[in-house]
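Re-run with default settings, no changes from the original entry. Doing this only to confirm the output is reproducible before filing.
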Amino acid sequence: MKKKVSILLVITVVLGMLAACGAKENTADKKEDNVLIMGTNAEFPPYEFWENGEIVGIDAEFAAAIAEKLGMEFQIEDMDFNAIIPAVQSGKVTFGAAGMTITKERKAQVDFTDTYYTGRQVIIVTEDNTEITGPEALEGKTIGVQQGTTGDIYASDDYGDEYIERFNKGMEAVQSLSQGKIDAVIIDDQPAKAFVEQNEGLKILDAEYIVEDYAMCFKKGNDELLEKVNTAIRELKEDGTLDRIVSKYINE
């Protein structure tokens, strides 16, 4: 009789432990489902950059506003730009936002939200450069780009891969230009302004290279969350939240 009671006690304890573990896992799953994790490359002011030990900027604040509207917690993971889409695909992050443009190649890998901002690709050269006056004058020149960006993609197509010098960070390309190692840099207009302000002897050409729209990217098949985020984007546009965030970082 004692043996039977002991066996029953053991079974009860084991089942209780399994139930507790299952409850913990369910709780963890629910908690994870309620967290919106943004993958970004925080080297792209004013959209995302480090300030006082935290990542701030247009994308960071706008994504935080979306999370708040959806009643979700918000986190940011900083990584190389090229690592963002793989991180979204693997589920390491919920979505990517880094001044990211919708392209045919990217649409084959991830799904995009509605666009929320229009940017321009511009050309940076040294102030004493009178030869390069616009995109047509870049033929045969060495062009610096941030690897994996649309500046990289478009410049490679337009001018030939052999003339493209790729950098992990936009600032590294700008520094290389300042040192006379390359002839020009193609990058988004707002980061370009920040980089030129921080580095003497550089200028942005008046002639823009390409106009493009920015969006956030999600793992394919995550349709329910994507639609919720799109609804939040529309509402935050309509109530002026997006404009307030943009004006905080871009004084135009």
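The chain has two domains: 34-116+215-249, 119-212. DSSP finds nine helices and 14 strands in the chain.
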